[in-house]
Write a structure and sequence with these properties.
The complex is a heterodimer of chains A (533) and B (503).
Chain A (H helix, E strand, L loop, with lengths): L5 H18 L5 H24 L15 E12 L6 E10 L3 H18 L7 H20 L3 H10 L1 H11 L4 H27 L3 E3 L5 E3 L3 H5 L19 H15 L8 H8 L2 H26 L1 H27 L4 H21 L3 H32 L10 H4 L1 H15 L5 H14 L5 H7 L1 H18 L15 H19 L2 H20 L10
Antiparallel strand pairs in A: 1-2, 3-4
Chain B lengths: L2 H10 L1 H19 L6 H19 L5 E5 L8 E5 L1 H22 L2 H4 L5 H20 L3 H19 L6 H32 L4 H10 L4 H18 L8 H8 L2 H27 E4 L5 E3 L5 H20 L5 H21 L3 H32 L10 H4 L1 H15 L5 H15 L3 H27 L13 H19 L2 H8 L8
Antiparallel strand pairs in B: 1-2, 3-4
Classes of the chains: A mainly alpha (533), B mainly alpha (503).
């Protein structure tokens, strides 16, 4: 596989698709849709090739030599005067056990969202052009190994998302779109400052022996690269590392979304069209937690270690708060949105454990949440397309009217609850196992198990209200699933069942990298007794 | 002054000479060929191109022109250096674009019979600006600013098509007169204290003569007020929205870019030449301890950007909104001055290059749309993105660039400003600046919301953009996207142009 730029292809195939879409004439709406399907389909094939060729024994994280499919090209090189030094920004992408599951997830979800977009008939060309641009940006975030490149992709995502919610969304789309945009931008401008601060604090040794400031993740992770005067250097007595960590964390937390920065999510989800909700829940939310694992954890190991109790606490709040609010929802889509908040809390809790099991569980949960919640939003979309309402209380007895649909719904709901033999169970079990083993966050973990109970409550209650009981006369003529909808549901369901029964491939995929991340953090930080809490 | 030093001096101001000759030619042609007004823009363009060639060929020139005390002295009235050349390029580039701009403006086409005067006045402005960016003498600074101002007062009310035209002109004149008066007062006090008007000699004097701190501060604040008025920094910005809204849009665009650039060049040269004792290895400027420039400029900068951004939030008139946005951008640019270092200057140079492209682009599209629908009100923009996808998408990219999001050039500009700030460890200012750019997102995005998210019933008629207009937009748009991804050429160019000649 060496030499074949698989990651660049994965990232830029949608962009090429976008250009093709833009070149198509007005009225060629079928062609536009097929071009998008081909682009995202190719992405899935490439992602599968990538996983098939993945070397499970290589760790990645901080070591460029064990990164796979690495591409490193000169991009920007400015030989400054003595006052700023050489600016060297490489185009560097690579995959390791943390990013590989996310790459696979992005490819699958984008493909399924394209299928789900088939019903879009308003400004089709614009829709798919923006959709493909969004796809490129998402993939770019997961493969970048340079902070500058990461930031460019991170921000590139905002504008397409704004338009996709704002033009094709529901009644309050304008409000939801601008709220999403402003929330995320606040987070990312702080990230920009932290990025520049880090740039001035660490130097990278070039092959010729000279030193240059750097945006390179590997160089920023190596604590011996930090100079004494840099604004974010641990050696600088007035360093602002702690504040920078908080700023960076908030930037990611908004995306997750972590309580109290979550309020944009229900609005965005409720107003967004179904495929965009799928993308939002399936991929976008993962960027927050991915960013923390890829950037915050290894670049600031010491501070991470000091703050795990708080990370776990916010995870707990997310889990329980999200579940309680979901319990109170009357709108099916809003309920799923809040269940998303709750499920992302599991990820935070698993990450806070700083154990191999917990972080494995967290990443696994990211993947599972991606597939399960995508399926849940598709389920909402199916019923909304037919009935044009999402009020939970307006339905009832759909099980007899749409038996196949109900079958899929049951699988997805049980997976979300965490029923054994479905994928959600494995990741939640790993998260709790990991978190419970750490004494400092044990209390928090015990309280958070309450979320499992609440999850079962709101899911089962919803199942009962919509699918069982008396069938409302209004819905006597609702048809069951069609072929396209089968094509969306079946792959997701297979993944959910497969990983529930046989999770080892996924765990193998990430285990080596997670282990090296955990070892890296403990090697680079001093263990503090957390008995004070 | 002997002949050699005179010819030396003249050789350092070739572009200015070319502009002056073109100015004269324009007036003569206007008088002789009364009927053929279409020649006039062509003469203007030729003049600008020749001046541009002179600037580029002498890019790295260095020397002092018109020194009073004989050759070899470092006390010329005009300093020729690469810093000045860079700004001259910006000004000439903006002027060339403005000629095309005026050509497609309905407002200007309505007054074709006075086209000669129009271009003569524009050349008056250009001449003023070219001298401003290289003058190193308080008197010449003042005179060039007056030349620029007087021409722009007339141009602001030039078309006389609307009442707002005359209002703009009069307001501009009154505010301008007050500010140049205060500035002159400040200059006279400096002269009184140091006995010279030359910036280099002032620098020497400040190092060696004991000067009353209070009087000096007072006079400097007066001078800053004068310059602040030109760059429309708060609290000297009051004229900006009214003038920008009332003036013909080609003049508004010109004022918002070129005149602001000249003002900034003058401010930076004034600070660097008169108040900096030495520049260290890291490119940090060490000020002579007579006045706390950093504090004053930091306050001005924060005030300017915050006020500009928050006022822009409430504007429904696009021209007025862009006026406030240009105030906000002056605030960001001031950040580059506050850090008082080579990298700060470099950031300002980079930012201005991109600001020129994106701001002129935005104004041009507002003008094209005003030509078609006769309105600059944001509510009349509903559904415009569907009536003219090309204009809509281009405007979207210009506005995103003004917000400073990647992958556009506007991001690179902001990025370098923040690099300069964090290099100087001014993290608090950087935080204020990024929060400001979040605020600015709201009003830029509001335009996109009206263009794309609201669809009026019945749908607007399709707007066809003629090919030349399209090419003009692309000429601004492509560099914005290209430099957003690959900015090495601009940064290298700016880096080679930060020499400010002085002691």
């Amino acid at each position: 596989m060496s030499g074949f730029p698989i990651l660049s292809l994965l990232t830029f195939i949608p962009l090429i698709g976008m250009i093709v879409v833009l070149l198509l004439k007005k009225g060629q709406e079928k062609e536009v849709k097929y071009v998008s399907l081909i682009a995202t389909g190719l992405q899935v094939i490439l992602a599968i090739i990538l996983i098939a060729n993945f070397d499970f024994t290589k760790g990645g994280i901080f070591d460029p030599n064990t990164f796979q499919f690495l591409e490193n090209y000169k991009w920007i090189e400015i030989f400054g005067g003595s006052w700023i030094g050489t600016i060297k920004i490489n185009y560097i992408v690579g995959a390791d056990g943390i990013s590989a599951p996310m790459i696979l997830l992005t490819a699958i979800i984008s493909f399924i969202a394209t299928l789900s977009s088939w019903t879009i008939n308003k400004s089709v060309k614009g829709y798919f052009a923006l959709f493909l641009l969004l796809d490129t940006a998402m993939m770019g975030v997961f493969v970048s190994l340079n902070f500058f490149l990461f930031y460019v992709f991170w921000e590139l995502m905002l504008l397409p998302m704004y338009f996709l919610i704002g033009i094709w969304g529901g009644p309050r789309k304008e409000y939801a779109a601008i709220k999403f945009f402003i929330y995320t931008l606040v987070g990312s401008v702080f990230m920009l400052l932290v990025m520049i601060g880090l740039y001035f604090s660490a130097t990278q040794t070039l092959p010729d022996g000279s030193h240059a400031f750097t945006f390179n993740f590997f160089a920023l992770m190596n604590q011996s690269n930090y100079n004494t005067t840099g604004i974010l250097s641990p050696l600088n007595p007035h360093n602002l590392r702690f504040i920078a960590y908080i700023f960076l964390f908030i930037g990611f937390a908004i995306k997750i979304p972590m309580f109290p920065f979550h309020t944009w999510l229900p609005d965005a989800h409720v107003e967004a069209p179904t495929p965009i909700s799928v993308i939002l829940a399936g991929v976008l939310l993962k960027m927050g937690t991915y960013g923390i694992l890829r950037i915050s954890y290894p670049i600031f190991p010491q501070i991470t270690r000091e703050l795990i109790w708080y990370i776990a606490l916010f995870g707990m709040i997310n889990m329980i708060y999200g579940a309680f609010v979901a319990l109170a929802q009357k709108d099916f889509k809003k309920l799923i949105a809040y269940s998303s908040v709750s499920h992302m809390g599991y990820v935070l809790l698993g990450m806070a454990s700083l154990t191999t099991i917990g972080i494995n569980g967290a990443i696994f949960q990211m993947f599972n949440h991606g597939t399960i919640t995508a399926m849940l939003f598709l389920i909402v979309g199916v019923v909304y397309d037919r009935a044009h309402t999402r009020g939970i209380y307006e339905f009832g007895g759909l099980a007899n009217q749409m038996p196949v649909y109900t079958g899929f719904v049951t699988v997805a709901f049980f997976a979300a609850i965490g029923l054994p033999s479905l994928s959600g169970f494995v990741s939640e079990a790993l998260v709790f196992l990991g978190a419970f083993s750490v004494e400092a966050i044990r209390t928090v973990t015990i309280i958070s198990t309450l979320a499992i109970l609440l999850g079962a409550a709101y899911m089962l209650w919803t199942l009962q209200r919509i699918f069982f009981g008396e069938l409302n006369e209004k819905w006597k003529s609702l048809p069951d699933l069609n072929g396209r909808e089968y094509a969306m549901f079946i792959p997701l369901m297979l993944i959910i069942i497969f990983l529930g029964i046989y999770p080892s491939p996924m765990i193998h995929l990430m285990n080596t990298s997670v282990t090296s991340l955990v070892n890296f953090i403990s090697a680079n930080s001093v263990n503090l007794t957390m008995s004070g809490f | 002054m002997d002949f050699t030093s005179l010819s030396n001096s003249i050789s350092l101001i070739k572009p200015e000479v070319v502009i002056t000759i073109t100015l004269i030619l324009l007036v003569i042609f206007d008088l002789i060929f009364v009927k053929q007004k279409s020649v006039i823009p062509i003469i203007a363009l030729i003049g600008l191109f020749i001046a541009g060639i002179f600037v580029i060929s002498d890019l790295q020139q260095s020397g002092f022109a018109f020194s009073l005390s004989g050759t070899g002295s470092k006390s010329g009235m005009i300093t020729a250096d690469s810093f000045g050349s860079y700004f001259k390029i910006l000004i000439i580039l903006a002027s060339i674009l403005i000629v095309f701009f005026s050509y497609s403006s309905n407002e200007i086409q309505k007054v074709t019979d006075r086209l000669g005067e129009y271009y003569a006045l524009i050349f008056g402005m250009i001449l003023g600006m070219l001298i401003m960016v290289s003058s190193s003498d308080l008197i010449l600074m003042y005179l060039s600013m007056e030349l620029l101002s007087l021409s722009s007062y007339v141009l602001a009310g030039f078309t006389k098509l609307r009442e707002r035209n005359s209002e703009a002109s009069l307001k501009y004149l009154i505010y301008g007169a007050v500010s140049s008066g205060t500035m002159l007062f400040g200059i006279s006090m400096i002269y009184g204290m140091t006995g010279t008007t030359n910036l280099n000699e002032i620098n020497l004097a400040l190092r060696h003569i004991q000067i009353n701190w209070l009087t000096l501060s007072f006079s400097l604040i007066l001078i800053v007020a004068g310059i602040g008025y030109k760059i429309s920094a708060a609290p000297f910005h009051f004229w900006t929205p009214d003038v920008y809204e009332g003036a013909p849009i080609s003049i508004t665009a010109f004022l918002s870019v070129a005149s602001k650039a000249a003002g900034f060049a003058l401010l930076i040269r004034f600070l660097k030449t008169a108040f900096v004792s030495d520049v260290d290895m890291n490119g940090t400027w060490h000020l002579i301890q007579v006045f706390d420039w950093k504090l004053l400029l930091a306050i001005l900068s924060v005030l300017t950007m915050t006020l500009g951004n928050f006022a822009a939030l409430w504007q429904d008139n696009l021209k007025r909104m862009l006026a406030y946005s240009s105030i906000a951008h002056a605030g960001y640019l001031l950040l580059g001055v506050v850090v008082m270092s080579n990298i700060g200057v470099e950031a300002v140079l980079i930012y201005f290059m991109f600001y020129l492209l994106m701001n002129l682009g935005s104004f041009y599209i507002v003008m094209l749309i005003a030509n078609k629908i006769g309105s600059e009100d944001i509510n009349d923009y509903d559904g415009l993105g569907y009536a003219s996808p090309f204009l809509g998408v281009s405007f979207a990219i210009f506005l995103v660039s003004l917000t400073g999001l990647p992958p556009t050039a506007g991001f690179v500009g902001k990025f370098y400003l923040f690099v300069a700030l964090l290099d100087a460890k001014m993290a608090a200012l950087a935080v204020i600046a990024v929060l400001n750019s979040v605020v600015s997102l709201y009003y830029y995005i509001r335009v996109l919301k009206h263009m794309f998210l609201t669809k009026p019933e019945p749908a607007k008629e399709t707007i066809v953009t003629p090919l030349p207009n399209m090419l003009f937009i692309l000429a601004l748009l492509i560099p914005i996207l290209l430099f957003g991804i690959y900015f090495t050429p601009v940064v290298n160019f700016a880096e080679s142009c930060i020499t400010i000649l002085g002691l």
